Amino acid sequence: xxxxxxxxxxxxxxxxxxxxxxxxxxVGNAGMAAILADWEGVISVEAKPVCASIxxxxxxxxxxxAGLDARIVALVEPGKAGEDGNPPASSDGGLSLWTLNRPAKxxxxxxxxxxxxxxxxxxxYHAALGALHLVFLLVHLANHRKKILx
Length: 150
Known about the structure:
Elements: E1 7-12, E2 15-19, H1 26-37, E3 42-48, E4 53-58, H2 65-76, H3 101-117, H4 123-143, H5 145-148
Antiparallel strand pairs: 1-2, 2-4, 3-4
Helix pairs in contact: 3-4
């Protein structure tokens, strides 16, 4: 399909959305949707050329979310997947920002809720939890910096 870079716009177990300008073409979008529809464990594929996206619903008991990510990376960027089919590890061998994204989202929700509840306890608790929320938000925004700065 000649896709240089496919963007996984959102992914929760059982549902994944791909977005890329190359998916605006009805032929390219339908071709990618047909490939994805043939995968084992895929329940449905909705091709939306007008939105340049594909919505994929799958059974997480058959395909693990990480395994699906790796298969998509291998499909659209053959050199990017590791030998085992998994996305490559970060260059320093440690955690990448993407592995911290889900905990950052959960941390944002918890710290924001705690910050609002802490208003009753005092300004210091409220400020401390608000600062913690900002730390989680910065991790999340760092993951999406390319989209934000376009």
